[in-house]
Amino acid sequence: MDLSLANPPNLHLSLTKSLSSPFRFRKPLPFFTSSVSHPRVYSSITSYYHPIKAQSLNQTNTPTDADDDDDGFILEDVPHLTNFLPDLPTYPNPLKYSQAYAIVKNTFVSPEDVLAQQIVVQKGSPRGVHFRRAGPREKVYFKSEEVRACIVTCGGLCPGINTVIREIVCGLNHMYGVHNILGIEEGYKGFYSKNTMELNPKVVNDIHKRGGTILKTSRGGHDTKKIVDNIQDRGINQVYIIGGDGTQKGAAAIYEEVEKRCLPVAVAGIPKTIDNDIAVIDKSFGFDTAVEEAQRAINAAHVEVESVENGVGIVKLMGRYSGFIAMFATLASRDVDCCLIPESPFYLEGQGGLFEFIQQRLKENGHVVIVLAEGAGQEYVSQSVNATEEKDASGNKLLLDIGLWLTQKVKDHFTMSKKMAINMKYIDPTYMIRAVPSNAYDNIYCTLLAQSAVHGAMAGYSGFTVGPVNSRHAYIPIGRVTEATNVVKLTDRMWARLLASTN
Ligand SMILES: Nc1ncnc2c1ncn2[C@@H]1O[C@H](COP(=O)(O)OP(=O)(O)OP(=O)(O)O)[C@@H](O)[C@H]1O
Ligand SMILES: O=P(O)(O)OC[C@H]1O[C@](O)(CO)[C@@H](O)[C@@H]1O
Ligand SMILES: [Mg+2]
User: Fold this and answer.
1) Which ligand approaches the C-alpha of residue 273 most closely?
2) 317 lines ligand 2 (CB under 6 A)
3) Which of 324, 323, 273, 271 lies closest to 480 in space, CA to CA?
4) Is 275 a catalytic residue?
5) If you average pLDDT over residues 237-244, what whole number do you get?
6) What pTM was computed for the model?
7) What is the whole-number distance in angstroms between the Cα of residue 498 and the centre of ligand 1?
8) 162 alpha carbon to ligand 1 midpoint, in Å?
9) CA distance linking residue 361 with residue 324, whole number of Å
10) Which residue's CA is minimally distant from atom 6 of ligand 2?
11) How many C-beta atoms lie closer than 10 Å to residue 440's C-beta?
């Protein structure tokens, strides 16, 4: 079987072979139509998947019945420029001549390499969903001197954004000899309303040591048509988009427009979010750094409350809809008595309520530390302050301050009940955990992400996201990472570990 998409001359051969291949594909519902009828319509950025029962394509692109012995293998593929530009020429990958890669046994990823989404399986279970493995391909679809790339960063900050920018620039330059790279300033709106900056290895040399993004970022302002007009006007043919779920939806919209206009433009999404709420990928970059930084706040709270009588420490951490930062920071710390996250409802009064728990811990231990994700208990705050729902420029709901609300509630409870006098220490390190530079682990992770994106774009994939799936980097259809939000599963063992660690 041959999964090669990177080789038009062999295309028919590939597809003919795949006729008898045991691969099942998952086909998108066509919410946009390709102007060119081409077998690679299997590739998808849409969020609308429906699995087709054992099916393959013949050369006229008509679904035919396939063998029943495919073991339930599904490839969720990413789009390729040849979907709508079948005659694009190819070139040998310059890495072939790289001294650094000279001793590598397999410099290029085999077109047949795929990664399984589920690696814990039972005997006899279907082989399930697979993604294309990321990495350099033997043939590329761009001449180095003709590449005009751009990078944009959108949404909230996250440790490691500058490292990703640096490694895209250095990867393009050192591995592929690309010299023409533009930084788009201030997010999506920067395409049509801001300046650009020339990026080269010298300009980005030190930026990984700094938090934030040298390109600046923003929310809102995504105007697909204006953005693609601008891409066209500037002659850009590779677009690297770093951002969270909203940004990736924007990247999908840009790719759709690129496809509609039949532009030879590779659109690569690099997922970014401090909340670790992006589906499919193992973990988002910067998350580790943020958890590490959160330890400092928890340590401070612990030191404070341990040093006074009846000390109650509350630490508020980021996490809009997902409590991953709070959960991992709690698990790592061992000083936390209670972790409140959006996924796990809680109540204050009565038996089993938070007040009772605090009182009990104070009696037993003399102090208590509570870690609180910002998205937890939002319903209580909105009821009590009668707030109207406000949104940010991207349409995300603005959260109410659960930290201050809970702090006041706990204080009021103990004052009014006269049961014991407490010493409240409230720490809100919110932005501090995401404004720091990335740690060593995240720096390496960011490098791999950036290089995977560069290899994918050079290989002609477009409208894809990169990310680790079971520790190996994959090209993932954008729709797959935006269709759902990754949340803490209370039925998983990790949450049980947390409950065990906090007693
Ligand atoms: N459905 C969408 N279609 C097109 N563009 C979108 C969509 N949702 C969001 N965007 C754009 O993506 C950019 C970033 O979105 P948002 O502010 O939601 O942050 P994000 O990428 O989700 O990152 P994070 O949540 O981690 O801060 C904004 O410019 C916004 O206009
Ligand atoms: O930067 P802003 O607009 O204040 O947004 C903060 C939000 O961004 C995130 O860091 C990522 O979505 C959330 O955890 C937080 O609620
Ligand atoms: Mg988001």
Assistant:
1) 1
2) no
3) 271
4) yes
5) 98
6) 0.89
7) 31
8) 19
9) 24
10) 156
11) 9
Q: How far apart are CA 483 and CA 46, in angstroms?
A: 9
The answer, yes or no, to whether any atom of ligand 2 lies below 6 A from the CB of 318, is yes
Cα-flanking dihedrals φ and ψ of residue 57, to 5°? -110, 145
Pull the structure tokens for residue 391.
């949104």
CB 211 within 8 A of CB 442: no
Residue 390 CA to residue 383 CA, distance in Å, equals 14
Closest CA to 435 of 238, 175, 191, 156: 156
Q: Alpha carbon 78 to chain centroid distance?
A: 16
Q: How far apart are CA 267 and CA 83, in angstroms?
A: 14
CB of 167 within 6 A of ligand 2: the answer is no
Which residue type, as a one-letter code, is found at position 71? D
Asked whether residue 264 carries a pLDDT value surpassing 50, the answer given is yes
Taking residue 292's Cβ as centre, other Cβ atoms within 10 Å add up to 19
pLDDT of residue 48 exceeding 60, the answer is: no
Is 350 marked as binding a ligand?
Answer: no
**DSSP result, 89-135:** --EE-GGGG-STTTT-TT-S--TT-EEES-----TT---EEEEEEPS
- Separation between Cα atoms, residue 278 and residue 484, nearest integer Å: 8
Looking at residue 135, its amino acid is: G
Mutation probe of ligand 2 site: the residue of 274, 293, 324, 401 with most atoms within 8 A of C-beta:
274
**Nearest protein CA to atom 31 of ligand 1, as residue:** 220
Q: Of residues 70, 77, 275, 277, which has the active-site annotation?
A: 275
- At residue 283, the pLDDT reads 96
Q: Is 156 annotated as a binding residue?
A: yes
pLDDT tier at 60, thresholds 50, 70, 90: very low
Task: Check if the beta carbon of residue 150 is closer than 8 Å to that of residue 196.
Answer: yes
User: Which residues fall within 8 angstroms of residue 60, CB to CB, at 6 or more apart?
Assistant: none
CA of 222 relative to ligand 3 center, distance in Å: 14
Residue 479, pLDDT score: 95
- 153 phi, psi to nearest 5 deg: -120, 135
Residue nearest to atom 25 of ligand 1 (CA): 244
Distance CA 401, CA 52 (A): 46
Please give all residues whose beta carbon lies within 6 A of any atom in ligand 1, as ranges.
154-156, 187-188, 219-222, 243-247, 249-250, 253, 273, 394, 396
Residue nearest (by alpha carbon) to ligand 2 atom 2: 156
CB 452 within 8 A of CB 446: no
Burial code (b: 16+ CB inside 10 Å, e: under 16) for 249-283 equals: bbbbbbbbbbbeeebbbbbbbbbbbbbbbbbbbeb
Distance 360 CA to ligand 3 centre (A): 38
Q: Give the chain's largest Cα–Cα span.
A: 82
